[in-house]
Each structure stands twice: as structure tokens, then as C-alpha cells.
Amino acid sequence: MKKLVRTGLSTIGSLSPRLAGRLAFALWRRPFARGQVRDSERKIHEAARIEVVDGVVTYAWGDGRRPVLLVHGWRSRASRYAGFVTKLLELGYSPVSYDAPGHGDSAGPIVSILGHQRIIRGLEERHGPFEGVIAHSLGVPFALYAVREGVAARRLVTISGVAEFAYLADTFCRELGLGPKINRELRRRIERGYFDGDDGIWTRFSVATGDIDLLVIHNDEDDVVDPQQARVLLRAYGPRAHFLPTSGLGHSRILADPEVITEAVAFLQDSDVQDSDVPERLDLGA
Fold first, then answer.
1. Is the preceding omega at residue 95 within 30 degrees of 0, hence cis?
2. Is residue 104 scored above 70 in pLDDT?
3. Which pTM value belongs to this model?
4. Are strands 153-159 and 213-219 parallel, antiparallel or unpaired?
5. Which DSSP symbol is given to 22?
6. Domains of the chain (ranges plus CATH)?
7. Residues 184-203, mean pLDDT to the nearest whole number
8. Signed CA dihedral, 153, 158, 159, 165: sign only
9. Cα separation of the two ends of the chain
């Protein structure tokens, strides 16, 4: 399927980059497949208090004290955090999450980073302030931006996260073999389709220095989000960022790894982080 799309868009792009950009945008903004609840997640999924707010399905567990927000990524859903929910409940936290529009059980269409900011702000008003936020993949820039814009959280954990907003368009084009002309057209479509033509979004929504302690978790075999994105996050947050490298877990299995879950939750638990108590820093000299 990807080969057919690649060939078709490349052919169209050689004749009309504008048309190819429009078609690429239509593909770029569609998850195609909705994540389904897995058998291993069903017990936790069904134990949640579920509400639907403006078409968005939200989930809450626990007694409401010490809330922790969980933000999922592209083609995913809240139930992927089942292992985290179990661990957080054991330690007296109250996990909160949502299925993004067009994902899981939430109605479509998908929304921009600004739409996610509004959803997260609404969850904060209902459940927060948050003890911490844990985000995966595309959920990372959504969570980082929401916190940067005022959502209260004491700690933030990023897993397999995107740091540079332009990475989303560049990677999409690279995977489909689309050249710079179509990339430019796709970017213009994104700017006009979601942000009123604002061409500053590529900087505005990329990671920026934040006033929060950050744990960055990434895997050396991640074939969806380049591990180099972790370096961008760590450089931006400087001494407030810490790094937990993992190996052999890829992009998705990392969310179910017991060690990752334990380390992420431990980072949220420790209110007075000392260098000796947290995972190693990444050597950024290379």
C-alpha cells in the first residue's frame, strides 16, 4: 500500500506539486486505523470512569487524589497505558487520560496541537492540577505545549517523543519519497488547514525550554521517531532534563515494558530530584 501511495504521489508531484501537496495533506491528517482495546488492556479499560465531553472520550481511575495525565500518540488510544495505570493506582495516584479526536472511541476528525491544548486544559480544570504528565510519541509535543502554556504539572515524562514540529512533515515526506517541492506544499497546507496560514508554527510548537523537571525515555531501535529527537529535548531542557536509554523495545512495546513503567513513575514520585537519584544524563558532546 505504501509503495503504491509513494509511486502515485511522486508521479503526480512531477506534474503538479500543488496537487500532490493537497493529496499528501489528506493522507497526513488521517490515522486510517483506530487503535482497538487489547485483551491485556481490557480489565483496566473497563475499570475507568468514562465521560464524553464534546465528542472526546475521557477516562479517570482512582479516588481523584494526586492525578497524573497520560497522553497517547498517533493511531493509539488511552488503554495503551494499562501498565502505567496499574502501577500508578498501586502507589495512590489517580490516572487521567483521553482518546484523541479520531482515535480510539472518540469521534473525528482529528484536531491540531491547539485542540489538544484545549482538551488537556479541560482535564486539568476537572481533575488537576496534575502531579505529573506522561506522554508518548506524538502526544509529547501536545503535552509539552500544554504545560508550557500554563497547564499545571510538577513533572513530565516523555517516551519516544517528537521534539521538532517540522519532524512530522519531514518524516512523512521522507517515508513516501516525496521531494522538497511537495514538502513545501504539504507544510503550506498544514499552515492553512489548521493554523490560519501561520508559517511560524514550526518554531512555535517545537520543544522550547520549560520550567519543569523532565525525564526523556527513548529506544535505540525506535523506527518511528528517530532517537535523535531525544537529544533535542535534552538540549532544550538542559539541567532539568534526565535521560533513560532503552534497547530492543522499538516504538510501541516500550509502553508495556515493566522497567520503563517503574522508572517513569519513580521519577514522578521523587519530589526532590538529585542527580544521583535519577537516570543518567545524555552525553550531548557527540
1. no
2. yes
3. 0.89
4. parallel
5. H
6. 1-30+166-204 (no CATH), 40-164+206-277 (3.40.50.1820)
7. 94
8. positive
9. 38
